[in-house]
């Protein structure tokens, strides 16, 4: 073999070996008929997530959501910034501010979806991934959110109605504490379905607890046939218990959501059950999901909402759950 031929053979063999080690070259374009290629960027530094809720100041429910989001941030190295405003217009401005600050992800509750529509769509157009929580499940995908995390309000309401029906109740009062909140309307509608009896609704204002108690007291005093009261918030539940006791009514109270007062009331028999949507998860999980999306292009839920409830808490389970309420995680 000549020196020239031997050199050519060695070079050819080396090229074959190199191609075997590196594997075939990736296609530059997706195959004909395939969907669009998934592309993600991984910006340097910690992920920054803005959590923006419709909670009001001092609301124990939203404090637990905040605790969940901040704990996820600590565990995952994510910078979490929590803000809230009960006014839909002001909440939309908080979303706009977060978009202007170019946060890496948004978590937004949508009690009033229409008021937030433009702001959330602008976030999506700006390339900011959005996860909705708590309220607005039906609108979430249409606005471009990756997924929704929360309980299905209609299903939760049905479970509450069924529970009252099992207890032999005949006439139910459903107390709405936030005007225009679609989730609360869905809860009462669900309760009507599950209860399959006489259901009335009463509008109160959570920001005026004294007036809320007065309105509930007036309702049960005027109609002595009301034997069940469903409140949609743990703070309103305490007001309902006081109102019922004040007029000597025999109506029993069930409520959505937990706090230390509701735990004590269940133990005392003043509240028969609480529909727990496990709101800690509504803060914790979206932060985790956004981290997975940025780092690994994961989308959780398969196009469906990720449900955190309902879980009914009564005397049989209140001791176990109550310890976690005390520490601010239920």
Task: Tell me what you see in this structure.
The protein is elongated, with a radius of gyration of 26 Å. The longest helix has 20 residues, at 3-22. Helix 10 runs antiparallel to helix 12. It contains twelve helices and twelve strands. It has 330 residues and is of the alpha/beta class. 48% of the residues lie in helices and 17% in strands. The strands form two sheets. The protein has a six-stranded parallel beta sheet, with helices on both faces. Strands 7-6-8-9-10-12 form a six-stranded mixed beta sheet, with helices on both faces.
Give structural attributes.
about 325 residues, alpha/beta, six-stranded parallel sheet, six-stranded mixed sheet, 12 strands, about 50% helix, elongated, disordered N terminus
Query: Would you count the extended β strands for me?
Result: 12
User: Within the largest sheet, what's the order of strands?
Assistant: 2-1-3-4-5-11
Spans of at least 5 consecutive residues whose pLDDT stays below 50 are 2-42
Structural class: alpha/beta
* Largest sheet geometry: 6 strands, parallel
Number of helices: 12
Whole-Å distance between the termini? 81 Å
Portion of residues in beta strands equals: 15-25%
Estimate the global geometry from the Cα principal axes: elongated
Radius of gyration equals 26 Å
Kindly state the mean pLDDT as a whole number? Answer: 89
**Approximately how much helix is present in the residues?**
40-55%
Order of helices and strands: HEHEHEHEHEHEHEHEHEHEHEEH
């Amino acid at each position: 073999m000549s020196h020239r031929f031997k050199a050519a053979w060695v070079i050819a063999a080396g090229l074959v070996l190199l191609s075997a080690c590196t594997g075939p070259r990736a296609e530059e374009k997706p195959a004909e008929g395939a969907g669009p290629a998934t592309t993600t960027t991984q910006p340097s530094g910690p992920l920054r997530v803005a959590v923006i809720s419709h909670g009001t100041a001092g609301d124990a429910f939203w404090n637990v959501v905040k605790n969940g989001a901040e704990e996820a941030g600590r565990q995952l190295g994510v910078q979490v910034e929590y803000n809230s405003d009960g006014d839909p217009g002001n909440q939309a401005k908080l979303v706009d501010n977060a978009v202007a600050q170019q946060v890496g992800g948004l978590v937004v509750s949508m009690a009033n979806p229409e008021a937030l529509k433009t702001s959330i769509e602008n976030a999506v157009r700006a390339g900011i991934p959005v996860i909705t929580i708590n309220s607005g499940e039906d609108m979430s995908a249409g606005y471009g959110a990756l997924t929704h995390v929360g309980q299905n309000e209609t299903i939760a309401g049905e479970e509450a109605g069924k529970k009252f029906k099992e207890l032999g109740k005949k006439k139910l009062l459903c107390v709405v504490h936030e005007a225009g909140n679609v989730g609360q309307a869905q809860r009462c509608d669900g309760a009507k379905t599950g209860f399959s009896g006489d259901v009335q609704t009463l509008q109160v204002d959570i920001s005026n607890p004294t007036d809320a108690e007065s309105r509930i007291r007036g309702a049960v005093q005027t109609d002595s046939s009301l034997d069940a009261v469903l409140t949609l918030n743990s703070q309103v539940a305490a007001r309902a218990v006081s109102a019922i006791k004040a007029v000597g009514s025999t109506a029993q109270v069930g409520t959505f959501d937990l706090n230390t007062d509701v735990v004590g009331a269940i133990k005392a028999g003043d509240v028969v059950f609480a529909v727990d949507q496990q709101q800690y998860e509504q803060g914790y999980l979206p932060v985790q999901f956004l981290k997975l999306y940025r780092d690994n292009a994961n989308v959780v839920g398969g196009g469906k909402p990720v449900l955190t409830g309902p879980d009914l808490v009564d005397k049989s389970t209140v001791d176990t759950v109550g310890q976690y309420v005390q520490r601010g995680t239920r």
